[in-house]
Amino acid sequence: MTATKAPTEPPVQRTVRRPGDRIFAGSAKGSGIFILIVLAGVAAFLISEALPALTAPADEIPGGEGLTAYIAPLILGTLLGAVLALIVATPLAVGIALFITYYAPRRVAAVLGYVVDLLAAIPSVVYGFWGLAVVAPRMVPFHEWAADNLSFLPFFAGPASTSGRTMFTVGLVLAVMILPIISAISREVFSQAPALHREAALALGATRWEMIRMAVLPYGKSGVIAGAMLGLGRALGETMAVAIILSGGAGATLNLISNSNPSTIASNIALRFPEATGLGVNTLIASGLVLFVITLVVNMLARWVVNRRADFSGAN
Amino acid sequence: MAKRIDVSDLNIYYTNFLAVEGVNVSIEPRSITALIGPSGCGKSTFLRSLNRMHEVIPGARVEGKVVIDGQDLYGSDVDPVNVRRQIGMVFQRPNPFPTMSIYDNVVAGVRLNSTRMKKSEMDDLVETSLKGANLWNEVKDRLSRPGSGLSGGQQQRLCIARAIAVEPEVLLMDEPCSALDPISTLAIEDLMMELKDRFTIVIVTHNMQQAARVSEATGFFNLNGVGQPGRLIEFNPTEKIFSNPDQKATEDYISGRFG
Fold first, then answer.
1. What would the pLDDT profile of B60-74 be if each residue is shown by its tens digit?
2. Does ipTM surpass 0.90 in this model?
3. What is the rounded distance in angstroms from the CA atom of residue B62 to the CA atom of residue B196?
4. Which residue, A87, A107, B155, B178, shows the most beta carbons closer than 10 Å to its own?
5. Any idea which fold B5-95+169-254 has?
6. Which residues of chain B fall short of a pLDDT of 50?
7. Is B91 near chain A, with CB under 8 Å?
8. Which positions fall inside the ABC transporter domain (chain B) (predicted)?
């Protein structure tokens, strides 16, 4: 209000400028600009290093069939694993968050919340070994069952892997890895659902679940989406766990349960970079540029989804 | 639809703290009953115990009886969810669901009752409820807009429309005008006068003029000191309370000597 009034007032009235305000404003602005510079630097590096691969003739790219043919299966692998992880983790995380905020006794809720947060503190290389040594062998029976019974779906076309080192196992391990991110953010927004609206629902004769559906879930929706997108970002970029578990390197396929899986962009870079030379390095960086763009698009989509019904978000 | 409420020997506890003690009162159907008293005297707690909304707070419980039309609300086989479906409530701060449109807000309670309704029936219900809440003319062109875009007084009338859409037997109002300006307050008071032909209305208010204006009967709650339980000091026809109360404390309160 005061800002719009300012021009009509006599110019003698100067606002007092306090040093504390100026230092804070300056450092906040500086931090914001710094982030933009870093981001621009990363983008500039990726583009300049990827350029040779983008312009090189097709037969000089590793694989000999051009850049698109090289990167396309990697993109598919990256998206397959991350989307599978998201599909598994999101409902589970929302359930955990609701249980902690509205169902569990206070003490149980605190312990459970702590344990879920602890999942985020485990290094991804540990997840990788756990996936390889524990999850993969135990998934083999399911792989066989899926190949026998669900093979009409392209995702379970078979033949079933005997090692379990498949995109399916990777998706499950990634789901566990992104679970704490999604559930922590969901928990936060659920617990902030206004008592005003929760009571409104209860006073209309809502059961606890109906109250959650009327007053908590709609309020927390944008938070859940934001959490899911953060989780998706992590799953897309996850390197070590995927590199350890997945027996990748095959061409594009939707089959989640066979021995030949497409690799993911990040794990492919990690595995190939040490031995890459010349144009091979540029090709890997070009694939990194693609990952950068994918992550950017995912985040922008998330923002768009969150803003789409801003009128109804409860923030006004 | 309106029902008589009989309260006998009601004690209300928060865990071990006795908040309200020994309330005995009969609330007449098709009338407005006002509850007045200083802050913290337990009038809101008492109001919320009439539709078991106080149980939302962990550790809250009651002793005694609240009987509506022969049925004890605290009987062992009574589901609080069903109690709240019969006894509507309007809160101090307007609380339409911000994620729902005006239309969806009005039918929110009806949808909970999971009675399948045709679209046309639903439309009629929205219209009659909003007309009943004197809001129809102001919102009929923007039913699909969010309820949170309305003014405070309109939001409160939307909440009343939402409460009466399920045809409750009793309407409880917890300081429904304290967040509103005088014009909106007048609109709500006019509305209450219309609604009392169909519902039993109990209103908690800090505004004694409001109690005097709208109610037939008035209950005065008070407490002896901080940490002491609140009590129903006097319950009489409003005219008597404001002209010739039985109790000295009531007279002191309404004449502004304390509170």
1. 889 999 998 888 999
2. no
3. 28
4. B155
5. Rossmann fold (3.40.50)
6. none
7. yes
8. 5-254
